[in-house]
Specification:
The protein is of the alpha+beta class. Helix 2 runs antiparallel to helix 3. It is rod-shaped.
């Protein structure tokens, strides 16, 4: 389940100046100039409930698609099981209605023949009007029963479709109960912990994604200072994230 990622990404271009003393323990010349562009990604819960697990740690690296938390799905799972049982029971009623229609149609064929025979016999004065009328009533009763059974079958079929839609909805909510990091990056700040109750749409995680060549990343640091540049960005953005969360 992909966690809700708000459209609040921002590009950062930071010019970082590191003194030689900070980088290598001596000297007065800067070790490197770093110019990074990075995206901040706010990851939010998509369902409300208690966080059963929440694993991200500030400063840790997260892969894209990594599951970082799970909202309790106990009630949803029970509701889904109930809806599935209801759907199966309703589907059985559709089958029963179909079988009943088959029985009525077989009886209708016989009743129609008997009605037509009684009409001919009545015209030949070999049957009474009462016999003819009874045969007609039997025939028309079966026609009405078939129509009623078909209407019931359609109604129950709609119930099956409605229950199936409900099952799909609950399944989607269960899927969204998993909080997933959408992009590779470094955890700058976390705003929740396991055991807390979260609301849908609440930010629970803030990730720095430095992107790739096709996303505008630009930096110039030597191999030693590159880690320092990244760490400085992380500290800077983490402070900003915490300021926004207050």
């Amino acid at each position: 389940m992909r966690a809700l990622t708000q459209n609040s990404r921002r590009g950062f271009s930071l010019l970082l100046l590191f003194a030689g003393a900070a980088a290598c323990g001596g000297g007065s010349e800067p070790d490197a100039y770093g110019n990074f562009e990075a995206n901040e990604v706010s990851v939010s819960a998509q369902t409300s409930g208690q966080l059963i697990t929440f694993t991200p740690v500030e400063g840790a690296h997260l892969a894209a698609g990594a599951t970082v938390g799970l909202v309790d799905t106990t009630q949803l799972s029970l509701e889904r099981a109930q809806m599935i049982a209801q759907r199966e029971a309703t589907s059985a009623r559709v089958a029963e209605a179909g079988n009943q229609i088959g029985v009525y149609q077989a009886q209708l064929t016989i009743a129609q023949r008997n009605y037509e025979r009684m009409r001919r016999l009545f015209e030949q004065s070999a049957a009474t009007a009462q016999q003819r009328d009874q045969a007609e009533r039997d025939y028309r009763t079966l026609v009405a029963q078939i129509a009623a059974a078909r209407a019931q079958q359609q109604s129950v079929s709609r119930e099956v479709a409605s229950t199936a839609a409900r099952v799909a909805e609950i399944t989607d909510r269960i899927r969204k109960s998993r909080i997933i990091n959408p992009e590779e990056g470094t955890v700058l700040a976390t705003y929740a912990k396991a055991g807390e109750v979260v609301q849908s749409g609440r930010d629970v995680l803030f990730v720095l994604n430095r992107g790739g060549e096709d996303s505008g990343q630009r930096y110039r640091c030597n191999s030693f200072a590159e880690a320092l540049c990244g760490a400085a960005i992380a500290r800077y953005l983490s402070r900003q994230a915490r300021t926004r969360s207050i």
